[in-house]
Amino acid sequence: MPWKVKGRSISYEPWYGSYASMMQRCYNQNAANYHLYGGRGIKVCDEWHNVETFEKWALENGYEKGLTLDRIDPNGDYTPENCRWATSKQQANNRRNTVYVTIDGVTKTLSEWADFAGISRSTMSDRYFCKGIRGVMLLHRTEDTKFKTGYNRYGDSKHYDDYAPTIIPASEEAE
Q1: Same domain, 15 and 85
Q2: Based on the domain organization, do 78 and 149 belong to the same domain?
Q3: Statement to judge: residues 80 and 112 lie in one domain
Q4: With contact defined as beta carbons under 8 Å apart, do 113 and 107 qualify?
Q5: pLDDT per position as a tens digit, 138-162
Q6: Using CA atoms, how far apart are residues 164 and 156, in angstroms rounded to an integer?
């Protein structure tokens, strides 16, 4: 049976699934993922315990079908200041176990660097976690580098930068 507020079946609203899941994760000890949320002390702010207040926030803050509720600080509570509507890709880049890599002063997640370099996420992870590759060498295309030996296609270390992509800091891209 749908949940009604002031005669309206609110449980059919497209954002309601995010609301119900948030409450379950934080307060239902039988929920499969409770230990990752409520079990770690993550709470929902008092004002969002009123579903109409959450609905107002959701509609005023960019809710669109297909977006999910994301906490900006993955260790923080569900509050208007710490939440946003995000794509699944944005959420994947905002996890507690997300790895950030800085190359030439620019910090991005492994996934963002993979997109930047045109390399699959699995290849980037393999290079970072399994092969121990760091820095600009993470961004080289496979035809430019022989990773098993640790040298580029010239077979020596002096040509490492010959095929390194140019990294433009975000502040300079707009110019």
Answers
A1: yes
A2: no
A3: no
A4: no
A5: 888 765 444 444 444 444 444 444 4
A6: 15
